[in-house]
Amino acid sequence: MANEYTGDDNQEDERTQAVFPLDDQMNIPPLNMPALHDGSTFDAEPSGLAGLVQETQAKRQADAASAQTQESQETQAFDPLAELDDEAAPEPQPAAPATSSFAPQRPAADDVATVAFAAVAMNPADDAALGKGVSAAKTKNPKRGMIIAFSIIGALLVLLVAAFFGTNWYFQDRVAPGVRFGNVSVMGKTESELTGIVNQAVSDSAITVTDSEGNNVKAGLDKLGVTVNVKQTVRNLLDAKSGNIFTRINPFAKQDVRLSATTDNYKLSTYLTEQLVEEQDRAVASNISYDANSKKFIVTEGNEGKEADPSDVIAAVKKAVSQPGEAQKLSVMYSDVAMPITVETATSAANDANKRLTSSLVIGNSKGKTFTLPADEIAKWIQVKPDIQKGTITLAYDQDAIKTYLSQNLAKKLDQDMVVEKNITNTDGTVLTVTQKGVDGVAVQSTDETAAQVLDALNAGRGAELTATVKVTGHKTESRKVDYTSPNGDPHMVINLSEQKVYAYKGSTLVKTFIVSTGKPSTPTDNGTFFVHTKYQSQTMRGEGYVTPNVPWVTYYNQGEGFHGAPWNTAGIASGTPKSHGCTNMHVEDAKWVYDFLPIGAMVQIVGTTPTSAVR
To answer: What are the tens digits of pLDDT across the range 28-69?
Structure first.
């Protein structure tokens, strides 16, 4: 049918644009309707509009297919008339009274075609034209995002490093994470806390043993031959996982720490037997021990009998050492046994031990001073280790005891102070005598090396002469020059045995002569040149067959020979009869003069021969 139309060309063009809000970018040409200026009518068949829409639809689909190939985007479909109804078309208004016979009308629904459009990129102007606003046109700065990301990562790294070092600092004197003691975590515990924990674990590790007759005994580890080093156990816990700072604070790296302890199966077996078996029924091993009275090792003979099998108890002790803190209960069986260690085995072990005692161990300081280790001290170092399961006795040595003894005693025995040597020389510089022998200073250094040498000698079962590690300080020398040849020189004396006289000189000048009585022919005074070494105002003299107290004004020049007053031998002195034991007897006042005249180091020459009778 025909529709009536009244208006100009622009009115219909605006209506067409309202139905299809598409611009040139979408390649949709505007629908130009013919203008009717004369007010006549025309046939506007719906099929004509549908044809135009179909032609537009075909072109749009071709463009959409091309866009899909280039951009690989998913197509979207919409109904332009629906868009018109929902968004672009204005709300329908009541028709105004017609001013002409041609009122414009919308095409019928049958004359509207559906057109499919592909999604295309819009610029902000397009979005605004379509009512989408311009917010989507805002862009972001990609560098700002990267800066934020790296800042967050850096902050996290700083926190991680701080946490790492802070954790290491916290655990520097505490137990590291992942460390367990007796299957219990001790992380973060201090030394004092650990001491209590270890002591409690040892106390809680008691073992209850029941025999086939219903007798039972509950024993702590110490009774069963276990010696626990609590201090070392605590140190091991604190040092656990200390090899690597990263592993140390890693709680997933686990480490179990056991008791630091030594076990004695012989003591364990002996304890079980003493507690569970009547004394008369026990099988006792032969053994050896040191007897202080005889100063040697002796054998204690054992006997046959029955014993509690210690195997399960030994295994329980091992478990308690590795996993302390848990009480255990077990049963033991009895069996008839022969003597666990024979007398012959014990005798052989005693002989070996005594060989160590009789083999002399001498330690020197390299400067003439020596020290022999006492046998009773060596006996304390020998550890007798019977093994009742093997039926043997072995000898071992307590190295710690050796080190302790030497560190406490070796310096006392071998150290020596430096002594200045003093001598007498003549005018030519020739040493006439040494009045004081020089001694090098010696100071013992570390004794551990010497202890190791002692241990080697004991293990070898032989004596040895060892040299301690020492520091030596050489002695100094002081010389005194004398002149015995010039007039009025230094004092010296000459004893003439043949004449039974003594001559006092100063250099070559004779100053005094004395009558004397020297050693009798059976104990003669020695010939030679000697030097005064010791002087006493009074002394008790002892010799073979005599003791003479209060001998006055003694001046020794040749070991035990010297001048002295002899009030008991005035007749011999007067007659010149040799009567002494080798000394030079003088009147008391003469002996005092000589005592005052001769200094230490003064020369005394003895010439002539001993007469057999009086010379005056």
So the answer is: 444 444 444 444 444 444 444 445 545 656 666 666 666 555
Q: What number of other Cβ atoms are within 10 A of residue 124's Cβ?
A: 14
Q: Which residue has the tokens 């200045």?
A: 420
Confidence of residue 393 (pLDDT cuts 50, 70, 90): very high
CA 51, 55, 57, 61 dihedral sign is positive
- For the stretch 336-375, pLDDT in tens is 888 989 999 999 999 999 999 999 999 999 999 999 999 9
pLDDT at 98 over 70: no
Tokens of 151: 């800042």
Token pair 């030679």 is found at: 528
CA distance 87 to 131: 9
* Cα-to-chain-centroid distance, residue 281: 50
Query: By the 8 A CB rule, do 248 and 179 touch?
Result: no
3-class SS of residue 442: strand
Q: How many CB atoms lie within 10 A of CB 97?
A: 5
The pLDDT score that the predictor gives to residue 118 is 45
Per DSSP, the residues of 160-223 read: HHHHHHHHHHHGGGSPPTTEEETTEE-TT--HHHHHHHHHHHHHHT-EEEE-TTS-EEEE-TTT
> What is the DSSP secondary-structure string of 215-233?
-EEEE-TTTTTEEE-HHHH
* pLDDT band for position 283 (cuts 50, 70, 90): confident
SS3 132: coil
Tokens of 200: 């409690």
Place of tokens 């400067």: 367
Q: Are strands 226-228 and 509-515 parallel, antiparallel or unpaired?
A: unpaired
Which of the two residues, 22 and 427, has the higher pLDDT score? 427
Alpha-helical runs (H) found in 332-469: 343-358, 375-381, 399-414, 448-460
Q: Which residues contact 613 (CB under 8 A, 6 or more apart)?
A: 577
